[in-house]
Amino acid sequence: MKRITLSLIGFLLFFTQALVHAEITLPSVIGNNMVLQRDIQVPIWGWASTGEEITITLSTENEGAEPVSSTTAVADAAGNWRTKLPAMAAGGPYTLKIVGGNTLELTNILFGEVWVCSGQSNMEWSVRASKDSETEIAAANYPTIRLFDVPRKPSGLLQHDVEADWSETTPETIESFSAVAYYFGRKLYKNLDVPIGLINTSWGGTRIEPWTPPAGFTSVPALESISKEIQEAHENYRQQLPEKMKAIETWIAETREALETDTRLTQIPENRHSLRHQARPTGLYNGMVYPIVPYAIRGALWYQGESNLQDGMLYHEKMKALINGWREVWGQGDFPFYFVQLAPFNYGGWIGDPFFLPQIWEAQTATLSVPNTGMAVTTDIGNLKDIHPRNKQEVGRRLALWALAKTYGRDDVTYSGPHYKSMEVEGNTIRLSFDFVGSGLMAQDEMPLTWFEIAGEDKQFIEAKATIDGNTILVSSDTVANPVAVRFGWHQNAEPNLANKEGLPASPFRTHPW
User: Do residues 366 and 408 make contact, with C-beta atoms less than 8 angstroms apart?
Assistant: First the structure.
């Protein structure tokens, strides 16, 4: 125990000097078994001694094969270095050798499609806890689908690494991995026939703000107050550091004496940052996203919103901040960002207002106005008694439909259910038009359409009759002679049956934002 404590003190005392003589190290996300993004230049980065020249060589794993590519980098004054591998087609395995004062060799590397998967509990939800888990786990033998699971760790300051490793998909490795991410990746793999890399960074019960970088908040004027909160927290932290450093220096001196005299030891003074908690803005970006930036990716998946349920349309502004922020820090342009619309759930006394959830649905739908986004609707695969529906297979599949159609150019894929487009009043009837009707509209259960309501000038919605007329819906009520508005699925318990003939459900909506 004494040796461990002395080592800690030595680390604290001589950290700066140690950096000067550091060996080459890499972030955990760059490691054995990783999947690198195909068809684009791939950043490779790490740390070394100041001024050290590093050579990075990529080779196939065939004995005696010539290197595929070779590049160099020089560590800057802070010991940071970075370079890029050339764009490569899907395939492998490859070996990556990094040579400087020491040598690192990474093996079993593939090039394919890489996706970051994030959010709260429904993204974190494991394959073990999903539908048909025993069968799914037993069948999970996909050596070219690779998994990287970021541990839950908030931070008030930017962290440069996480404790995680890439692994091949096996029954042993898939049990605790994100079910949505896995089923999404498996669908892509079966359709694209290329290696798939899945990075899961999610945490149950978290809000959207902790996942968002400062650049995201500053990009959205409606969130100026959050930007100020972040700035003030960092300024306060900097102002408090001198006093905290004195406390640590005193502790070091007292601990050194206690070790020499074999007397009672005390704990090191806490040095907590006010944004460290997983509920505070940037706290999870700092600890669980920044360490994997700028690892090359194809796109991102997002499944979150329950913890922001009372935000209403402000959630749309926060989604814009998240998307803008991630795209800014990754520096890969407007990469695809696909998300899941929350499933119906009876929040009961937890929230109280049954219309909070529809307002989040509305905010999520509005986020489709952000370029290169997509939304998987789940109104038909939820569980009103369980906020964690078990059918993650279909959630993953629906996200994959967006990717296959919009990212990979499959023009034979219907990727969305009906979305409200416009309305026309025709006497005592309102005619609704939709985007994404596919090959036609239908009721999933072949029963009359459900969860349609209509209102007149008094703004009082009542249950309405709705019928399919070609690619439109006619909505009316005998008690509303002069209708002006319709809403659909506008309740937290709504599980409506309108879909297109490809089986993808319609998203809830209202024609007037009363």
Answer: no
